[in-house]
Write a structure and sequence with these properties.
Blueprint (H helix, E strand, L loop, with lengths): L1 H12 L9 H14 L23 H20 L3 H7 L5 H13 L3 H14 L7 H17 L6 H10 L7 H9 L5 H44 L23 H18 L4 E4 L2 E4 L9
Helix pairs in contact: 1-3, 3-5, 4-5, 6-7
Pfam families: Retrotran_gag_2 (PF14223)
Length: 293
């Protein structure tokens, strides 16, 4: 029995927790899990063993087995709810009653509950949208919840609400819906949105490629210019000046050093003592030698 409970716990743990906003997603998933574990009849009031006037008393063993299966279903339901809802459903003893409490909590037809779903729809328009399929899925959930609480939207209202939640870059879709006229449907708009998303992603990717190509060409051009201004050293070349291999004469460091040394000697020579004696005095003429003769 413990192995069965462990498996049920894993099944409940793998579900998205029931909140006040995701009943339309959670409930079908719960039914699927209960069906897969042969527990679907435990939430059917007609399947509960009762005394039948014609068949006579119910088999006590069958009643006990059914109650154990109900306990497993209740276990899955309780542990697949968020804490706030879980605190209310675990006060009930049968999975049927637990589901009724959960449904009332999520899908109450009160004005407050209906307004809450409408506010979710409004807030969805200001949320960032990186994946339009995910965005449409959220819209679908809200529409399903509104329908469940007795506030269904018309086809046109769904189209208008979805258009109102789209980014400004999708503004042209409203005009496309006008062109379609009576053929404009919520499903048709979803198709246009996914196509536009694909087009925008393709355009963005193409623009990035072109920008990268321009940057690469500019970098390559700069490298070519640098190579033209500064000739590369050639390992097989022999310098005509120092007779060493690995470079040409125009980039020879030895030649440059010698030229610098020669220039230094010349400068010092220009500044050497120059002058003449006049009446016993020495006249310094600085860097320029004046000829007085």
């Amino acid at each position: 029995m413990s192995d069965t409970l462990d498996a049920d716990a894993r099944a409940a743990g793998g579900m998205a927790k029931l909140t006040s906003s995701n009943w339309s997603h959670w409930h079908p998933l719960l039914l699927l899990i209960l069906r897969g574990r042969d527990l679907l009849d435990t939430i059917d009031p007609e399947a509960v063993p009762n005394r039948d006037e014609e068949a006579g008393p119910v088999n006590p063993l069958a009643v006990e087995m059914f109650r154990k299966r109900q306990d497993r279903a209740a276990y899955i339901i309780g542990f697949s709810c968020s804490p706030s809802i879980q605190a209310k459903v675990i006060k009930k003893h049968s999975p049927i009653d637990m589901l009724e409490v959960a449904k009332e909590e999520c899908l109450s037809g009160s004005y407050a509950n209906t307004a809450r779903f409408l506010k979710q729809l409004i807030d969805l328009g200001s949320e960032p949208k990186e994946d339009m399929r995910e965005h449409i899925g959220k819209i679908d959930t809200i529409f399903s919840n509104l329908n469940a609480v007795g506030c269904p939207l018309t086809e046109k209202a769904k189209v208008v609400h979805l258009l109102a939640t789209l980014p400004s870059s999708y503004g042209g879709l409203a005009m496309a819906m006008d062109v379609l006229g009576s053929a404009a449907t919520y499903e048709r708009l979803q198709v246009h949105i996914t196509e536009e998303e694909h087009r925008q992603h393709h355009y963005t990717a193409q623009a990035k490629k072109e920008t990268a190509l321009i940057a690469h060409q500019a970098s390559a051009s700069k490298s070519n210019n640098d190579r033209q201004r500064s000739p590369r050293s050639d390992r097989n070349a022999r310098c005509e000046y120092c007779k060493k291999k690995g470079h040409d004469e125009d980039v020879c460091r030895t030649k440059e050093r010698h030229e610098e040394e020669d220039n230094g000697v010349s400068d010092r020579a220009d500044y050497a003592y120059t002058g003449r004696e006049t009446h016993g005095e020495t006249i310094y003429m600085g860097q320029v030698m004046l000829c007085t003769d």
